[in-house]
Design brief:
single chain, 214 residues, alpha/beta, Aminopeptidase, seven-stranded mixed beta sheet, two-stranded antiparallel sheet, 6 helices, 18% strand, binds zinc ion
Length: 214
């Protein structure tokens, strides 16, 4: 357990360690459903985890299938306090460009789900961060993520986008990519059912992120 939601539900991460012969590489953290109305991102994370049980990744890997568990169960983008968790991260732009429905919270990282994810990343020293969203079908990058974005794009066929086309103050990518300079990818998959066609669209790109052959 890495923390709890506003409503007290447990947030969990699954940890995979590489085989002993693998060269040590900085850990990766991948997560889904920071927006509760994007359940396909949870399914992607669970499918990847199932494959890593069969064959361990080439780097230390943490998977958080659901960050916004209360929102997922309620079918809402925001958490139980009606905060958009992807506007709640601590960075200089936090709280700018307020828009209806994108409430950043009363203070940066005042939400337990944001705290849980940030604490995990800090604690394990992750340098590769993969945020799974829906539904734009693209690979967005921040910080040092450009090369990885192009590699993933070649595997999944989604275009690489550096600019989302609108300001994202207090977003995960701003904190960890723009500010901290880590390797940050926002993978936007389409709304797909949990069928093989949907999974196969992103499978190779996600396996590549954790140094597993496509
Ligand atoms: Zn999203």
């Amino acid at each position: 357990m890495i923390g709890k939601t506003v409503l007290g539900r447990a947030l969990t991460a699954i940890h995979f360690t590489p085989p002993g012969y693998a060269k040590p590489r900085p850990p990766a953290v991948l997560f889904g459903a920071i927006h509760g109305d994007e359940p396909v991102s949870q399914l992607m994370m669970e499918r990847l985890a199932e494959e890593l049980v069969e064959r361990p990744p080439g780097r230390d890997t943490w998977i958080v299938p659901v960050v916004n568990l209360d929102g997922l169960l309620a079918g809402t983008r925001n958490n139980a306090n009606d905060i958009d968790l992807n506007r709640n991260f601590a960075c200089p732009s936090w709280g700018e460009h307020r828009r209806p429905g994108y409430n950043p919270g009363a203070a940066a990282e005042d939400q337990p789900e944001t705290q849980a994810l940030s604490s995990l990343i800090d604690r394990v020293g992750a340098e590769r961060l993969i945020a799974c969203h829906a539904t734009y079908r693209m690979v967005n990058w921040d910080g040092r993520g450009e090369q990885l974005a192009h590699e993933m794009s070649a595997l999944c066929g989604y275009p690489v986008e550096h600019d989302m086309g609108y300001p994202c103050p207090g977003s995960f990518g701003t904190k960890y990519g723009v500010q901290a300079g880590l390797e940050v990818i926002t993978l936007e998959s389409p709304y797909l059912l949990a069928d093989d066609a949907g999974w196969l669209e992103v499978r190779s790109a996600l396996r590549w992120c954790v140094d597993l052959p496509a």
